[in-house]
UniProtKB/TrEMBL annotation:
GO molecular function (one): hydrolase activity
Organism: Urochloa decumbens
Identification of the protein by name: GDSL esterase/lipase
Keyword Signal attributed: yes
A Pfam family assignment: Lipase_GDSL
Record's signal peptide: 1-29
Keyword Electron transport recorded: no
Amino acid sequence: MVGGDRRLEPAAFVAAVLVAVFLSPAAEAETAAAGASLRPGPFESIFAFGDSFTDTGNSPVAFYGYSPIMRPPYGMTFFHGVPTGRFCNGRLLIDFVAHGLGLPLVPPFFHIGDGPGAYPLPINISLEVQLGWFEEPKPSLCKTDQDCKDFFGKSLFFVGEFGINDYQFSFGKKSMQEIRAFVPDLIETISKGAERLIGHGAKTLVIPGMIPSGCAPPVLVTFANAHASEYDAATGCLKEPNKIAMLHNSLLRYAIHKLRAKHPDVTIIHTDLFNHVTKMVKSPEKFGFKKDLFTIGCGGPGRYHYNLSNVCGDEAATTCEDPSTRLFWDGVHLTEAAYHYIAEDWLNAIVGSLSARASS
Ligand SMILES: *[C@@H]1O[C@H](CO)[C@@H](O)[C@H](O)[C@H]1NC(C)=O
Ligand SMILES: *[C@@H]1O[C@H](CO)[C@@H](O)[C@H](O)[C@H]1NC(C)=O
């Protein structure tokens, strides 16, 4: 971290946190009962570090008092209308990945019932702090160093998404030049975090890239008065924020390249958000999305229905009839439908890397 500037922390504000899943005893019993006929998945657990794109329910605790996401219509599509603390109408990418790998959905690290006072507030959710949450209960997960290495070797680690918040909360407050200048520090933080996990015995890591920030409705609203020349004519997205996301992604790819060279026995999978979202923005009809692509599925009055004083979950907010026709859910976050499309590619990337590892 440079200079103690909170903008330099991945996951500066919104949601984020360590989530972990273990094969529940019930699932183990089922596997045992099914005997050899049930092919065991490649992983026994998932550990995830990240922000609201990854968080399966920590933020209501971490941001106690920020409750809109604990009200309908959050959760309307998959969780029988029950809000789970996910910033989505349904499942997130990580839920689809867990399911595809034969694991239960990833539970949050914090428990919603824990209530105020259970943790000192405000909770700092930087990657550094999240790593601490992972390391502290380690003795309860595994005993000896070898035990731990074996256990984490059979786990899948998500390092991110990180970056969306750092950029989104900086747009309009800092110059593009200032934002550009902190990209390398952010990448360094992610890379060091990944290395710390490798030190604990992680053998498989997924490190997602950035979305095209210039297509995100909150960013488009922040720069509502931008000149026509600042938009990419093919997408309607803002060029400069997208260039920063591209810089982030290319520095991240280079950092991953270096990590792979340094740790040849570790599988590091880089997953894409930028190209997927861009494709959806360019051809919404191919995905069943409506033409007014930047209009969010749930929000208040105003441009693209994005209105900070009337957010999804507020009483006066409105929800579109069919969220599967929308790319964006409540602002920057995507709908379950969008995550579902992207998850197929992520799963292929994960499974493909594992078979490459098995045959090398
Ligand atoms: C959050 O924690 C990190 C790591 O300990 C620290 O560097 C950073 O200054 C903290 N941020 C805030 C806003 O307290
Ligand atoms: C945002 O919502 C508030 C409260 O409902 C409303 O008064 C305001 O006009 C809205 N903003 C825009 C730009 O429509």
